[in-house]
Amino acid sequence: MFAVVKAGGYGHGAVPVAHAALEGGATGLAVATLEEAAQIRGLVDAEQILVMGGLLPAQARTAAATGCSVAVSNRELAEALADSERPVPVHLKIDTGMGRFGCAPEDAPALAQLIDESRGTRLAGVWTHFAKSESDADTTRRQFELFIDTVSRLGVSPGMRHACNSAGALNHPDFALDAVRCGISIYGCEWPGAKPGLALRSVVTHLKTVEKGATIGYGSLWRAPGQARVATVAIGYADGVHRARANRGHVLVRGRRAPLIGMISMDAITLDVSEVPGVQLGDTATLIGRDGDQLITAEEVAQWSDTISYEVLTSIGPRVERRHVE
Questions:
Q1: pLDDT in tens, 245-303
Q2: In which region does residue 118 sit, left (phi positive, over 0), alpha (psi from -120 to 50) or beta (all else)?
Q3: Kind and range of the H or E element at 92?
């Protein structure tokens, strides 16, 4: 299993997540960029780090120097790597319907042979990526069958074959082949019964009582239906609370759900805590996670934000302090 720790470990912190994933049984790590690979070098053999993102031919020398496995989708990058001083482990990506990266299936045999025959590259794997494995079994099966057929026609040993992302591994375990690449699932999201790996919390920094008709925030988007108690919390869109959350969803305070009211500011949000007894300055506000018997998940926040849990997690800004707990 490749544990996908790109984008700062989906907002959790790449290095601590990588350590935890390896201790939990992962055999490799996957990232998007060479810079991300540099952060986790030394945790596993370099070849067990797969750089999945698109690289330019001009980056070939730098990529080769890392010793990491490199995804190749086109002849230009393969040729740029071909003169490397030591063989670069290459994972040839085949586009079976995702449409972002990957060579066309009909071009795969010639490209695989080029990689296999060049002194500076070694075909260490072949892979593809499912477009709808979370929702469309027929499309996923067609992609898988096209991948298997293409691999059978390469004319060289394919090395490690892998196709499944998290949803693929969950919904199509029979497509696992030699490896799977698990991203969102290792963080406890989008996987039934999983325990979320992250809680996002801040503090109440201001309290006031407002009368009926008072408005709150930019654009005066919320108007008090009666006397209300309003708490300001030190977190905003610079920290990952999407502006789409204006007047949407809840935050946990003292074990109760408090409606988020008004527009999201860069550094602050406001809550109606009228139904939460005893709120004080310094109280914890939980945006993701558990407080008492109440739980807010990243998936729930995603619904309020008109997005997906991936974006909720990776949007958490750099000024949010990460505290990693065993």
A1: 999 999 999 999 999 999 999 999 999 999 999 999 999 999 999 999 999 999 999 99
A2: beta
A3: strand 88-93
How do the domains of the chain map onto residue ranges? Answer: 2-187, 200-314
- Is 6 part of the annotated catalytic residue set? yes
β pairing state of 121-127 and 88-93: parallel
Q: Which of 6, 10, 237, 310 is catalytic?
A: 6
CATH of 2-187, one of 3.20.20.10, 3.90.550.10, 1.10.630.10, 3.40.30.10: 3.20.20.10
User: What per-residue confidence (pLDDT) applies to 326?
Assistant: 77
- Tell me if 126 sits within 8 A of 92, measured CB to CB: yes
* This prediction's pTM: 0.94
Four-way CATH pick for 200-314: 2.102.10.10, 3.40.50.11270, 2.40.37.10, 2.60.40.10: 2.40.37.10
Choose among 22, 108, 28, 98: nearest CA to 69. 28
Per annotation, catalytic residue among 93, 195, 218, 310: 218
Token digits of residue 283: 């109280």
DSSP 3-state of 137: helix
